[in-house]
Amino acid sequence: MQVARRSETAIAAKSISLTFPTADGPVHALKDISLAINRGDFVSFIGPSGCGKTTFLRTIAALETPTGGTLSVNGMTPDAARKARAYGYVFQAPGLYPWRTIAGNISLPLEIMGFSRSDRAQRIARVLDLVDLTGFGGKYPWQLSGGMQQRASIARALAFDADILLMDEPFGALDEIVRDRLNEALLDLWKKTGKTIGFVTHSIPEAVYLSTKIVVMSPRPGRITRVIDSPLPRERPLEIRDTPEFIALAQQVREGLREGHSYD
Ligand SMILES: Nc1ncnc2c1ncn2[C@@H]1O[C@H](COP(=O)(O)OP(=O)(O)OP(=O)(O)O)[C@@H](O)[C@H]1O
């Protein structure tokens, strides 16, 4: 008997290319990107400025259209997946509306989607708890620290319970101590929710600490130079960063980044 099963692959890219026409000639932002991301994976994209990390995340989110190749998100085209609200997107800056409270900011996409008032209230309470901001729903963004604001923006992306969370360098502007805490909190959230996460970063330790899969990219043209599957356990205290396994993995990422540079 055949049992209908949901595909294990959340995101499948086959030979994706994206060329931007510009006044100075075409910019090959992505070239021949093939990658499979499984459900529940935590995938980091790392590489120097201009290697196409943001562009690739934006193609997954249907904010850019590839000029070649095929891309499926939850078995759908990116556009259909966007309409089905298959993902939440977290930008580098929290982007909270200053005239709305934290709860009001989280509520906004839910209002647009037509969730009822009581459903919204339940969802807001749940996601505030997930990002450890219970009790801050009534505050305005300017009353919160940068790290708290970024947690609020993650809560907003989680509120409609998409299976996929796309995060474009969400902690890039924060100091190291706050970043460490948010990295721990994000891992905890990932374990609790089982979401598939695509995460852009410039930081090798951040990529190694968080990911089950690390995608190393290189510019001109934007391409993948290495895909490293992490052997680290899913249970990761911050001290794991001092273990030989962690250091060896960071070394592999560094080598991948160097390979990319020698191509220039
Ligand atoms: N709308 C656009 N029009 C023209 N070129 C673009 C556009 N968007 C991105 N690019 C170019 O595509 C390349 C990839 O850009 P992208 O922002 O994806 O890189 P990135 O790896 O995310 O960089 P960073 O780490 O600096 O954010 C760059 O050369 C960039 O200038």
Automatic annotation (TrEMBL):
InterPro entries: AAA+_ATPase, ABC_transporter-like_ATP-bd, ABC_transporter-like_CS, ABC_transporter_ATP-bind, P-loop_NTPase
Superkingdom of origin organism: Bacteria
ABC transporter domain boundaries: 13-240
GO molecular function, one term: ATP binding
PROSITE patterns linked: ABC_TRANSPORTER_1, ABC_TRANSPORTER_2
Keyword field: ATP-binding, Nucleotide-binding, Transport
UniProt cross-references to PANTHER family, sorted A to Z: ALIPHATIC SULFONATES IMPORT ATP-BINDING PROTEIN SSUB, TAURINE IMPORT ATP-BINDING PROTEIN-RELATED
Family to which this protein belongs: Belongs to the ABC transporter superfamily.
Protein name: ABC transporter ATP-binding protein
